[in-house]
Amino acid sequence: MTNPRTNLDYSRRIERVVQHIGAHLDDTLDLAALAAIASFSPYHFHRIYRSVTGETVADTVRRERLHRAAGDLVRGKGAIARIAKVAGYGSVAAFTRAFAAAYGVPPAQYRRQGRLLSPARQTGKEEHEMYTVELRQIGPLRLAAFDHTGSYMEIGPVFERLFAWAGGRGLLRPDTRMIGLYYDDPAAVAAARLRSKAAVTLPDGVTPDGGAQLVELPGGRHAVTRHKGPYAELEMAYGWLYREWLPASGHEPADRPIFEEYLNNPRELPPAEWLTDICLPLKEPSAVSDEQSAGVRLKAEG
Fold it and tell me: Do 230 and 103 contact (CB within 8 A), yes or no?
């Protein structure tokens, strides 16, 4: 029989480790030092880490570094040799093998494409055919969240901390939803000052603790577009949503932040299979009818 207090204690201690990993992604991460941060014996620390997070420390570091590298490649930040070195690889060849294994294409090809090519892209379909918008009435969301300040591409470790926090409290249930809140436009605000939150839905009656905060999002109508592929490519979907769909839709955004909902587990699937719903809150319609709003569908969320 599991002991809830022990689970919570273990979760808090592993949470300290994932925070440290996120803050020291470019450092040498010694298992004995990580064990000391968690106050576990080094003989048992890694087994506990793997049981709590579902992956090894090396898996966490590799995934986070490759995710950051994908963002650097998409944004054209630096030579591939430099990106490989920052990601912890001793040669471009080693980085190329690791990146291709995770993302399905080598880094040079990924940079040229600027994204993973979907079947629509490979057959020459236009961007507007890659994305569709669905109007959804999304009910109020009660969230437990941790703050992140800095590049949106670096929010991953905050989610790792969140998962450790929620797992230790028995809050990672089949119906738990993973949410990212994004308050600023990265094209207008310096990366170091971007504000966001990593969040999970919270059952009624549960109060966040341990540094997590309660965030309550009001319900309302949202324009939802689904992105399939690496998180590093989400900005393409944002660009299409704001540049193409919104001006032609007859709708106006509400005074609430946009958020992302992550629909599957990036630990279990390759980046090409990651699914993300981008949810743009809208003002309630006035004289504009649903039929005039760019042919989108209205779907009530259950």
Answer: yes
